Amino acid sequence: MPTSRRALAGGALSMHVAYFLAISCLGYGLLGVLKVREPGAAPRRIDRFFTAVSAATVSSMSTVEMEVFSNGQLVVLTVLMLLGGEVFVSLVGLASKWSKLRSDAMDRSQRVESHGDVALADIDGGDVENPTSSGEEAASRRRPMDADTLRHNAVRALFYIVLAIFAVVHVVGAVAVAAYVLASPGARRTLGDKSLNTWTFAVFTTVSTFSNCGFMPTNENMVVFKRDAPLQLLLVPQVLAGNTLFAPLLAACVWAAAAATRREELVEMAREGGRAAAAGYAHLMPARRCWMLAATVAAFVAVLMALVCGMEWGGALQGMSPWEKVVNALFLAVNARHTGESTVDLSILAPAILVLFVLMM
Description:
By secondary structure, this protein is mainly alpha-helical. The chain is 70% helix and 0% strand. The chain has helices at 3-33, 45-56, 71-84, 86-126, 133-142, 147-183, 185-193, 198-210, 229-241, 246-261, 264-270, 287-312, 322-336, 351-360. Helix 12 crosses helix 13 (322-336). 36% of the residues are buried. Residues 1-10 and 135-143 have low confidence and may be disordered.
């Protein structure tokens, strides 16, 4: 690896570590400042720090029960998961790359203007006329943009597309979850019994699900919602969109934007993933790889779902209607490969299913 590449990699790693340390420490401090629900049940400092780091790194490990935290503390954990999610971190990387490319473009522009002034002075001094200059300028405007400009515009366009996906998924997801809770007496009663605010629950759940963290503001995770099949179906697309199906979703959005605008940078990105134009954004893949990835995800989920139904129909899924059993099996199959949210107690699952879960993870 050349020296410059090593320095770049080292700098990026240092910034990455500093970023997560900063948000983890900030979260730890805010969790300590805000009061818990019951003063006598306040977590220890190490537990608060562990929970903050777990939320920031979206690992969803916790040494305290989630219902200990107050509404304000749940908001802090929501922000930590939002800032630590892979899509948001990649968005920060795109913003940094865009800023650097814009700075480089401004430097090149200044150098070109400086050389242009010198050349113009030489032409004026020699009294040389150039009747074709206006024609050449018009032709240059019709030429394809150079590689540097194309890369800058591609990164800028990609930043806005990823930002739009990020915003739409969270807004639509939170509104949909809140609407279901408000429309469902059972779900509304469950949150009421746990003194959880509907919108806090909706936003927290959406952020945790899309970031593939797996935290839930309830002690039992999703077990208390095992009979709420519509809620599970609302969360499944969020799980997939925030993980393995993000690349196909991004490719589809890039293709749609290119078809609608015909902008050169978007057309280039839509063509075979546009790796050169997008400066190596890892989540932007060629169409063929996206189709293969989507087919693989569908196959794995279908196999795992069928095995869960076959082995747990009269076991962990007993007491539910056939429709609820199928939806719960789908939810377990999807989350086994992603967030880790669960609607059943994993300890009662058959050992073969647990082994399969391990392999899928």
